[in-house]
Design goal:
By secondary structure, this protein is mainly α. It folds into 2 domains: 38-146, no CATH class; 151-300, no CATH class. The chain is built from 10 helices and 4 strands, in the order ααααααββαβαααβ. It has helices at 3-37, 39-63, 70-89, 96-113, 120-145, 152-181, 196-222, 230-256, 271-275, 278-292, and strands at 185-187, 191-195, 224-225, 294-295. A hairpin with a 3-residue loop joins strand 1 (185-187) and strand 2.
Length: 300
């Protein structure tokens, strides 16, 4: 590469980094504030993220040859966290039969909108998958914020941030371990850049951060704690889920033939590119923390 070409490449990388930093400086405080206030603020944030993520998913599905009911799916995805909010507050009671009717309604819609030759089965399946893959997992963040043992805004926020920070640590560990020691590819057909060393580094970093977070945040500030060794086990489980979530989105993007799910977030790609790991981490964390996390000894 010529010197001018190299200079242009460096300048381009610097511009992308500036966009990434600027986006993070704007979005991170908004997200943290919504988690802190919880309730309607968090439900609204999750609803917007779910709707945007579903839009991106349906674009990927269309790129792979499906014809989902995108507008219907986007509305359903955006409403899902809002309905969870209303359900947990007791404002609205949604019977299970109402949820079970959704696939039937979509099948009925396929009769008029797709017909026999319009791929009705694929349309309904991809529409439902967009909601289940994006909106349902994101809604678990609301459940974590309302964790039964959490005391006040500090406790609820601390519970939500535990899997988020463990996921971030997993990504950081994978990046540096992969750069330093990565030779053997993990699953090159799905994600050529991921290595076995990166996967191991991700496991170690997530476990360490989960343990430190438990000791120095959960116990003193949220009055919550793990049993012996459970924080490390939680971090390992989160890392496995995070890496799997990342691989799943990489698989979907490769099938659709795109690099990013969209360009909604300058410097970061799309919403799915930012939350792909959390789509697997949040439901698992909700299940594990309900079993592992208990009031810290001595809490009155």
């Amino acid at each position: 590469m010529t010197a001018p070409g190299a200079a242009a490449r460096v300048a381009g990388q610097g511009g992308e980094l500036a966009k990434r930093v600027a986006s993070a400086l704007v979005l991170a405080p908004v997200a943290i504030a919504c988690v802190w206030f919880g309730r309607a603020a968090l439900a609204t944030l999750l609803g917007c993220a779910a709707a945007a993520g579903a839009w991106e998913f349906y674009r990927l599905a269309e790129g792979a040859g499906s014809r989902p009911f995108a507008r219907t799916g986007i509305v359903l995805a955006g409403l899902t966290p809002i309905l969870v909010h209303a359900q947990l507050l007791g404002v609205l009671r949604i019977p299970l039969t109402a949820v079970a009717l959704v696939p039937l309604v979509l099948l009925a819609l396929a009769v008029w909108r797709r017909g026999v030759d319009g791929g009705p089965l694929g349309a309904v399946a991809s529409t439902l998958l967009g909601v289940v893959y994006v909106a349902v997992p994101l809604s678990y963040a609301y459940g974590l914020r309302a964790f039964e043992y959490a005391v006040g805004d500090v406790g609820g926020t601390a519970v939500v941030m535990l899997p988020v920070l463990a996921t971030w640590a997993s990504d950081v560990g994978a990046y540096f371990a992969g750069r330093l020691f990565g030779k053997r590819k993990l699953i090159p057909s799905v994600s050529p850049g991921k290595t076995v060393a990166g996967a191991v580094g991700a496991l170690g970093m997530a476990a360490i951060v989960a343990d430190l977070y438990s000791r120095y945040v959960l116990v003193p500030y949220a009055q919550l704690g793990f049993g012996p060794g459970k924080a490390l086990a939680f971090g390992l489980a989160v890392s496995v889920a995070a890496q799997l979530g990342d691989l799943v989105e990489s698989m979907l993007k490769r099938e659709a033939g795109v690099k990013d799910s969209s360009r909604l977030i300058p410097g970061h790609g799309g919403v799915l590119d930012r939350v792909d790991s959390l789509l697997f981490v949040l439901p698992l964390s909700y299940l594990l923390l309900g079993w592992m996390l208990l009031p810290a000894p001595g809490r009155g």
